[in-house]
Design goal:
Neuraminidase, Potassium Channel Kv1.1, Chain A, 4-stranded antiparallel beta sheet, Serine Threonine Protein Phosphatase 5, Tetratricopeptide repeat, alpha+beta, disordered N terminus
């Protein structure tokens, strides 16, 4: 981890391939920059040879000869030093000397190097010193470079240090980045990072109180609190009541609460904890004996039962229902377990049987069918701007195509053009807005599914015009070759697949006789498919997406009717669980997850204070009881 990872240049930091809007601005800068590289290099060589230098920087016992104009152009600090008056020096030496105390010589050398070359040797050992130095001398370009490097190396082991560094140095953006990383990965970090155990009670509570804390189960938050207390039991046991205020106890299962929290040795004798536990017991009792309570639409969910905010938002776009295609967009709030209708329908009109892929905050909709026309057109939805626009069309019309993303290229495989099933494949480059033909798959297939694993595109199942398929093949872009791999255990047309944790999961579909509820998992190391637990509902032509470390199956056709049911699969225990239905019945839809949306509040369930009353009503309906009014 101590190896240097550079040099990095300031130009490289400005370029972000995920933002198409920056391309036109960045490319000319890089061309202009290359014209100046030679001049900068020559100036740096003059400085190294002490030629034409007119300034001195004193650092401890070292003396650095520099060109004042170069450093003044890049640093507010040096500009003030070299261009101001220094009354202690004689007139002939005025403004030639700058004395910096306490800065390490190698760090100062990098500051000087950046002033000349806009390059900097950054590594894990010097990053904090360089960032402090750049901030001290007021060198914005170097500050940006250091921050980008710091963000790029953020990990489970150092994110707490980054957060605390930003707070101590009053770098609020660094603190925010570090804190967001900690909140996003809090449960795993609490298991492996001792820095989080060393936080004081105020710092630790600020994390567990935060609505953005990413915890699928509040049980895990309680366990993290216990670990924090056990790190120094003598001093911290007394804070258990304060910690309980931050845990959403109303979301913990009643059994876990009774067995692990209510009578825990840390809580039974804590006066601050007693009223919290009592209130939680009353809440759980009312929730699980709903028929004793009348409907009360004004009853608000207490804070300790309010779900936290999701970090990922799942979008369900388009589809087919009631004999027509749909343009509707719904989002799923996994923390509230609610689907939200979003008023961002595509103004170009509806489409179903399309493919989608996400790059950054944009969802690309590829091909499809609207009941009259088979599309080669493609649309992109910007989830931040909430706007749609047209992009370059494919070379051929495709519905039922298999679409996947690899290395920021979108692959459209096979499909149906209105006349024949296709085996041709094309690839979209969002930077150039162009589709390019690549090697065709070995088998004509529509109604298949595609995903990406280990830098390869896999496509499986589907229909060749005669029979449903069980075949699977993968594409290696380095070789431009499609290779057949092990066949699935079942033929599956209208199948859906995703890659997760090193495996490919293929679920549902139509085998030529019936819609399937079965699923299977492919291990590329053994080249074998094995069955997983069956879904609750049979379905084909549905959406499958990974969210919150679970695999969600959404909508589809069950052989009799189009459905809106949603269920999720937990690979850890090989179980499917039902979740809230979509607001709209549909099949032939697509689903994609976007992480880190800056405007995620626009896409989540708004009325969170009534969630528990809604939940109580569902329990009543499930129990076959009529609520008292």
């Amino acid at each position: 981890m101590s190896q240097e990872l550079l040099p990095i240049t300031a130009d490289e930091i400005r370029f972000d391939v995920s933002e198409e809007s920056e391309i036109e601005e960045v490319v000319p800068r890089k061309r202009n920059r290359s014209a100046n590289n030679e001049n900068e290099k020559q100036m740096y060589e003059l400085r190294n040879d002490n030629l034409l230098t007119d300034g001195l920087i004193l650092c401890d016992n070292d003396v650095y000869h520099v060109h004042r104009a170069v450093l003044s152009a890049n640093s507010d600090y040096f500009r003030a030093q070299f261009c101001g008056l220094n009354a202690k020096l004689s007139r002939s030496e005025r403004n030639r000397y700058v004395h910096i105390r306490g800065m390490k010589a190698p760090v100062l050398e990098e500051v000087i190097r950046f002033s000349y070359l806009r390059k900097c040797n950054i590594n894990l050992q010097n990053i904090y010193d360089l960032l402090i130095a750049a901030d001290y001398v007021g060198m914005p370009g170097m500050i940006t470079m250091c921050k980008q490097f710091l963000y790029s190396i953020m990990s489970m082991s150092n994110c707490v240090s980054v957060m605390r560094f930003g707070e101590q140095r009053l770098m609020l953006d660094v603190r925010a980045k570090g804190r967001d990383y900690v909140l996003r990965n809090f449960i795993k970090i609490a298991e492996v990072n001792l820095d989080i155990m060393r936080l004081n009670v105020d710092e630790f509570c600020s994390l567990i109180y935060d609505d953005n804390l990413n915890a699928r189960e509040e049980d895990s938050v309680w366990k993290a609190c216990l670990n924090w207390i056990n790190f120094n039991v003598t001093d911290r046991k007394r804070f258990v009541g304060r910690l309980l205020h931050g845990i959403r106890l109303g979301l913990v299962s009643s059994k876990y609460f009774m067995d692990n929290i209510k009578d825990h040795p840390y809580t039974v004798d804590n006066e601050e904890a007693k009223p919290i536990l009592l209130e939680t017991c009353k809440f759980i009792s009312n929730l699980h004996i709903p028929y004793r309570l009348p409907v009360n639409k004004r009853a608000k969910t207490p804070h300790f039962a309010l779900p936290r905010l999701p970090h990922e938002i799942m979008f369900a776009i388009g589809g087919w229902s009631g004999g027509t295609s749909k343009s509707v967009v719904e989002t799923y709030d996994t923390r509230a377990d609610r689907w939200v209708k979003v008023n961002v329908d595509d103004p170009a009109g509806p489409r179903g049987y399309h493919g989608t892929a996400v790059i950054g905050f944009r969802i690309y909709c590829i091909g499809g069918y609207d009941g009259n026309e088979y599309f080669n057109t493609c649309r992109v939805f910007d989830a931040v701007k909430k706007s749609w626009r047209e992009i370059a069309p494919m070379h051929t019309r495709r519905c039922y195509a298999s679409v996947s993303l690899l290395n920021n290229y979108i692959y459209a495989v096979g499909g149906f053009d209105g006349s024949i099933r296709l085996n041709c494949v094309e690839r979209y480059n969002p930077r150039t807005n162009q589709w390019t033909w690549i090697r065709s798959v070995n088998i004509q297939r529509s109604d298949g599914s595609a995903c990406t694993l280990d830098n390869k595109v896999y496509v499986l199942g589907g229909f060749n015009g005669t029979e449903c398929l069980d075949s699977c093949e993968c594409y290696d872009p380095a070789l431009n070759v499609w290779t057949e791999v092990a066949r699935m255990n079942h033929r599956r047309s209208g199948v859906a697949c995703v890659a997760y944790n090193g495996y490919i999961y293929a679920v549902g579909g139509f085998n030529g006789t019936a819609r399937l509820s079965t699923g299977e998992r492919y291990d590329p190391k053994s080249n074998q498919w094995t069955f997983i637990k069956e879904m609750t509902h049979s379905r084909s032509n549905f959406a499958l997406e990974v969210l919150d470390e679970m695999i969600f199956a959404i909508g589809g056709f069950n052989g009799v009717s189009t459905i809106s049911s949603t269920e999720c699969y937990c690979p850890e225990n090989d179980e499917w669980m039902e979740t809230t239905f979509m607001n709209i019945i549909r099949s032939a839809l697509s689903a994609n997850t976007i992480d880190g949306l800056p405007n995620k509040l626009d896409y989540i369930h708004k009325d969170r204070s009534n969630l528990m009353e809604e939940r109580r009503q569902r329990i009543l309906v499930t129990a076959g009881r009529t609520p008292r009014t």
